[in-house]
Write a structure and sequence with these properties.
By secondary structure, the chain is mainly α. It has one domain. It is built from eight helices and no strands.
Length: 144
């Protein structure tokens, strides 16, 4: 990807680790992912520059928990690798397409990402994103 800087790669990794941390903390994975992707915290990471981008995953998780008045504990659990891949891929997706986190979540929600992880995690990230967008387009065509 053109202009894919070290800083952007680090933010992809931070978001991947954030998703892993949510799992390790015992949060319901789909509820966490939905809350995060539609949050002000995610919007801050989407921004060109925001202090939250360099706060680290523990601080971002605390900010999100405060923002949503408490994240849901227990419930559905995804695998550690799936959670990391989902977080990393969502952030990469933003840099790849310019789409906002909330828009990306509408295209590929937590369930879709978890279901596609096994087949897509070995693909180039851009190829995985293109395939996720194609799945969304196919679903939209079916619903017409």
């Amino acid at each position: 990807m053109e202009n894919f800087t070290v800083d952007k790669m680090q933010l992809c990794d931070i978001q991947g680790r954030l998703f892993e941390l949510a799992l390790k903390t015992g949060y319901d994975c789909p509820a966490f992912i939905e809350a995060f992707m539609n949050s002000q915290a995610a919007s801050c990471l989407d921004d060109v520059y925001d202090r939250l981008q360099w706060a680290g995953e523990e601080y971002i998780l605390e900010e999100l928990d405060d923002e949503v008045n408490g994240l849901k504990k227990a419930g559905s659990v995804f695998g550690n690798e799936s959670m990391y891949w989902t977080g990393y891929t969502y952030r990469y997706w933003h840099y790849y397409t310019g789409e906002l986190s909330s828009e990306i979540y509408k295209i590929a929600d937590a369930k879709t990402m978890n279901e596609c992880w096994f087949g897509f995690h070995t693909l180039d990230v851009e190829m995985a994103i293109d395939k996720l967008k194609e799945i969304y387009r196919q679903k939209q065509t079916k619903n017409l």
